[in-house]
Design a protein that fits this description.
single chain; about 170 residues; alpha+beta; Immunoglobulin-like; eleven-stranded antiparallel beta sheet; 3 helices
Length: about 170
């Protein structure tokens, strides 16, 4: 599971930031703090929504772009997968933690600069918390040992998810 999630989702995480010209993305709109997009890959539609933190604490350290994603890859039967890009390489062997509204906690596994839920069941539980929440906090540790805490607004997530559901023909 680790390799397939890392490989499949790692490719998506770079598109809006580093390689937007290589794939023609369709902008589905901005919904509160979330932007929604779709693109074609190998004849199949991939849809995702992303957000940047409203607050990022990293002990004054410089880092790359921090992003929260939820991705649909219907052709691979991979739907509503939340994942997070830290803007640095996570400390080897470390995990990350997500807390929604200060009360729902989720332990994530990390590989490189990305963190995911550990399994399909955890994906579904995390997505349910995100859909019903107001704020999400992502905490992790960089390869240099710096602790980070990034706060995301969940305002607009429901409409952003509806947009990617429609674009990828996903029924809830």
């Amino acid at each position: 599971m680790l390799c397939s999630r890392g490989l499949v989702l790692g490719l998506v995480t770079t598109l809006p930031v580093a390689d937007a010209k290589a794939v023609e993305q369709r902008d589905l709109g901005q919904f509160g703090s979330w932007n929604a997009y779709s693109y074609q890959e190998g004849g199949s539609t991939v849809c995702f929504t992303l957000s940047r933190p409203v607050k990022a604490d990293a002990a004054g350290r410089s880092r790359g772009e921090v992003l929260a994603y939820i991705t649909h890859r219907p052709a691979e039967n991979s739907l509503s997968i939340p994942h997070f890009v830290a803007g640095y390489t996570y400390k080897k062997g470390s995990g990350a933690k997500v807390t929604v509204d200060g009360k729902r906690n989720f332990d994530l596994f990390t590989e490189g600069d990305t963190a995911w839920a550990r399994d399909d069941r955890s994906d579904k539980e995390l997505l349910k918390a995100i859909r019903g929440g107001k704020t999400l906090v992502l905490k992790g540790t960089s390869g240099r040992g710096t602790s980070t805490s990034d706060t995301f607004s969940l305002g607009g997530i429901g409409k952003a998810l509806a947009a990617i559901d429609k674009a990828c023909n996903v029924k809830r």
